[in-house]
Design goal:
Layout (H helix, E strand, L loop, with lengths): L2 E5 L2 H14 L10 H9 L11 H8 L2 H9 L7 E5 H6 L1 H12 L14
Parallel strand pairs: 1-2
């Protein structure tokens, strides 16, 4: 089995995750700056899904080293390909070529979607 992990800038991931939860009604947000977002998330006492504070659950999701160490307990590092979301945005074809090489299939040209990802 081969795993492909796509990682995103941790701050962008944190911010996006927060707004995802606001938009789905899981968190009530008080208007303010991003620093206020961080401060406000500290007030959420507990996330039953993650068994930790909501703020901590947002942070641990972005601790890629922690998660990668867990995967390496079960998979050889040669079977894990790490790609970065920002690289995909910059050069989609190059990233896909590296994935094709990793999984052992012939490279294929792709068309960019109309919404530009």
């Amino acid at each position: 089995m081969k795993l492909i992990m796509m990682l995103r800038n941790t701050v962008d991931r944190f911010y996006s995750d927060f707004w995802f939860n606001v938009n789905r009604g899981a968190v009530v947000y008080k208007k303010g700056l991003f620093e206020g977002v961080i401060r406000d998330t500290m007030e959420v006492p507990y996330s039953p899904v993650h068994k930790m504070s909501y703020r901590d659950s947002l942070i641990i999701k972005g601790d890629y080293a922690f998660h990668l160490k867990n995967y390496l307990k079960y998979f050889d590092k040669e079977n894990i390909e790490i790609i970065f979301f920002e690289d995909l945005l910059k050069d989609r074809q190059a990233v896909l070529n590296s994935v094709f090489d990793f999984i052992g299939v012939k490279n294929a040209a792709i068309e960019a979607p109309k919404n530009n990802l």
